[in-house]
């Protein structure tokens, strides 16, 4: 049932994603409303699937109150869920309809990744039995999903900037939110995610140094680079008044580092490994 | 039971007649129509049209209805008014509600006017089965045409394109400040549109200060000294340049200096002067956008050409809804069931 619900959620994500693209090319407001509704159903189904998974995982007493996101499946599924949920909230509040086409692809991709990986929750390794560790990926992935939303917003800003600068704006220009709105939203999302990112990294670092006596791990370093990138974005924006296109480049570089940290470092890290060691 | 319509609009009647009709209060008009023995009636009265729609079972009452209109006009009407019965009258209302019959084709105000005309009649107890369904369908068709076709999109004049572009940069213009360079006719026209879009503050800089003051006063703005223009670039968001100067009055150096104080906020130049007022290289600066008259005009031309097909789409919608209503009416008379479509069409 859990897997079925997840498949259902994935189907609804796909539909919502399709509608978001449909909306990009048509003027039908109803498409984006349905996109939002279907996405809501997808998020709900996903939450239910997650709940069942939690239930099953907690059936083993020693797993109790740990979240099963230490496998690639668990992590990607949680990532897709929080990305979709964050977007659902942002869209519900701001009604920046067209953003769906820029944000949903990432949620969809990570749900697809989860669908492609082994859903069996492996038993927790002994060093992983710590509430620090339990919260650490949870918090980080939540921060990642807000940042992924910010990435989508940044992408929309670059497209819009190009439109206005070209002097030949197409219909898309008049449908996208304004440069200032996109810039503000990008900033607000990143500013909201940074404390969580910080907390997640600190938790991981503390816990790593307690357990292994060092926090010098490829993943921790990658996370630090990411953190510095986003901190630089906020600093440049706040201190130097850097806005618009250039500031988006900075935030996108930080996002690239985040992706590298999240996926590629798995192969380099001694202690982290969703892909290599589960 | 069929629909009868008499009316006069900008297409048929001269201004003085339209003014005379527009002065008749809707409640009086409804009362007169009732006196003349019509049970169901809606009076649509705007500055460009005055129309009476009634539902009538007896044939040949069109001339009675027309004489009611003549009472309002105070004179016999011939070519200035139209009297239509049946499906053609239905079609007319759908053209009106979709904005196709408006003076400015596609304008949106008419939809609200149709709605309130219906509400007034309903509150006066003058609506019945036919008019209820007819007007609800007309409003629905109008909304549908506005949301699914490009008929409602302005962007068919240089001024509206300029305002929309400003909105693409700043979003809601209520937080934006405008600086107008020059005080001529074009400057005034742009001021009018930008103030209409709700800008927070309007400033005018003109070489002849008194002229600048006069223009600023007309829009509750503020005149600033011509020499202070370079500093003003630091706080304005939208700059409309339309001076008669024969060389650029805004240079790259000036804008660069202004940018240093703007903390990254974008700056939008609309240069409608001939020859141009703002150096072209300004557009290359980050967060600065410069549109000339030529740029704006080519956007307008493009929109006008794509609009033709949007108008066709809107006509199709009006026609479809009118035909559907006529089908419904026929079914009603024959005592058959007929479901009107809702939602997506």
Task: Please characterize this protein's 3D structure.
The complex is a heterodimer of chains A (278) and B (345). The two termini of chain A are 23 Å apart. Chain A has helices at 2-25, 29-58, 72-94, 100-116, 131-166, 171-175, 179-212, 218-239, 245-262. Helix content of chain A is 75%, strand content 0%. Chain B is an alpha/beta fold. In chain B, 48% of the residues lie in helices and 15% in strands. Chain B has helices at 15-22, 26-35, 62-73, 87-97, 109-123, 129-148, 158-170, 185-196, 209-218, 229-232, 252-260, 293-334; strands spanning 2-9, 40-45, 49-56, 82-85, 177-181, 201-205, 222-224, 238-241, 267-271, 288-292. The longest helix of chain B has 42 residues, at 293-334. The mean pLDDT of chain B is 89. Chain A binds chain B through residues 27-30, 160, 163-165, 167-169, 173-174, 176-181, 237, 240-247, and chain B through 147-150, 153, 155, 164-165, 167-171, 262-266, 283, 286-287, 289, 291, 295, 298-299, 343-344.
Strand % of chain B is 15-25%
The N- to C-terminal Cα distance of chain B equals 27 Å
Structural class of chain A: mainly alpha
Average pLDDT confidence of chain B is 89
Name the helicity range of chain A.
over 70%
* pLDDT < 50 stretches of chain A: 273-278
| Tertiary shape of chain B | elongated
What is the element string of chain A, with H for helices and E for strands?
A: HHHHHHHHH
- Poorly predicted regions of chain B are none
């Amino acid at each position: 049932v859990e897997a079925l619900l997840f498949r259902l959620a994935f189907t609804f994500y796909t539909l919502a994603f399709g509608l978001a693209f449909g909306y990009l090319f048509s003027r039908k407001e109803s498409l984006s409303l349905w996109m939002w509704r279907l996405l809501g159903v997808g998020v709900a189904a996903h939450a239910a699937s997650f709940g069942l998974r939690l239930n099953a995982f907690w059936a083993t007493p020693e797993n109790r109150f740990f979240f099963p996101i230490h496998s690639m499946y668990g992590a990607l599924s949680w990532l897709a869920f929080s990305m979709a949920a964050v977007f659902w909230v942002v869209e519900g509040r701001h009604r920046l309809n067209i953003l769906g086409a820029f944000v949903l692809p990432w949620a969809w991709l990570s749900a697809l990744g989860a669908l492609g990986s082994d859903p069996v929750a492996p038993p927790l390794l002994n060093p992983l039995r710590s509430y620090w560790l339990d919260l650490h990926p949870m918090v980080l992935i939540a921060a990642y999903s807000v940042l992924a939303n910010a990435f989508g917003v940044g992408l929309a800003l670059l497209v819009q900037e190009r439109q206005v600068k070209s002097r030949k704006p197409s219909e898309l220009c008049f449908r996208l939110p304004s440069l200032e709105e996109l810039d503000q939203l990008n900033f607000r999302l990143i500013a909201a995610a940074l404390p969580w990112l910080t907390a997640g990294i600190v938790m991981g670092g503390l816990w790593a140094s307690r357990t292994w006596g060092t926090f010098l791990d490829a993943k921790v370093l990658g996370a630090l680079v990411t953190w510095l990138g986003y901190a630089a974005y906020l600093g440049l924006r706040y201190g130097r008044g850097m806005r618009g296109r250039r500031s988006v480049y900075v935030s996108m570089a930080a996002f690239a580092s985040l992706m590298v940290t999240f996926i590629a470092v798995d192969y380099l890290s001694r202690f982290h490994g969703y892909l290599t060691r589960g | 039971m069929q629909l009868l319509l008499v009316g006069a609009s900008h297409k048929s009647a001269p201004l003085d007649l339209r003014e005379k009709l527009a002065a008749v209060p809707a409640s009086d008009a409804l009362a007169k129509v009732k006196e003349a023995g019509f049970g169901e009636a809606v009076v649509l009265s705007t500055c460009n049209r005055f129309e009476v729609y009634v539902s009538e079972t007896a044939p040949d009452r069109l001339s009675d209805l027309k004489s009611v209109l003549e009472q309002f006009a105070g004179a016999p009407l011939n070519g200035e008014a139209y009297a239509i019965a049946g499906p053609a009258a239905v079609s007319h209302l759908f053209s009106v509600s979709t904005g196709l019959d408006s003076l400015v084709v596609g304008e949106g105000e008419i939809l609200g006017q149709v709605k309130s005309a219906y509400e007034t009649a309903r509150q006066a107890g003058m609506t019945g089965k036919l008019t209820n369904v007819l007007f609800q369908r007309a409003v629905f068709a109008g909304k549908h045409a506005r949301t699914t076709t490009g008929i409602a999109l302005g962007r068919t004049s240089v001024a509206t394109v300029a305002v929309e572009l400003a909105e693409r940069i700043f979003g809601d213009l209520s937080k934006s400040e405008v600086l107008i360079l020059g005080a001529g006719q074009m400057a005034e026209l742009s001021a009018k549109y930008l103030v209409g879009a709700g800008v927070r503050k309007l400033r005018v800089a003109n070489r002849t200060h008194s002229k600048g003051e006069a223009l600023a006063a007309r829009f509750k703005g503020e005149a600033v000294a011509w020499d202070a223009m370079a500093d003003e670039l630091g706080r304005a968001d939208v700059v409309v340049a339309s001076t008669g100067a024969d060389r650029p009055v805004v240079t790259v150096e000036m804008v660069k200096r202004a940018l240093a104080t703007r903390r990254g906020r974008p700056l939008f130049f609309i240069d409608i002067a001939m020859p141009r007022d703002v150096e072209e290289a300004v557009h290359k600066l980050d967060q600065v956008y410069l549109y000339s008259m030529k740029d704006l005009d080519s956007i307008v031309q493009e929109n006008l050409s794509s609009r033709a097909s949007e108008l066709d789409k809107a006509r199709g919608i009006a026609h479809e809804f009118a035909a559907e209503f006529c089908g419904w009416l026929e079914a009603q008379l024959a005592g058959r069931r007929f479901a009107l479509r809702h939602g997506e069409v």
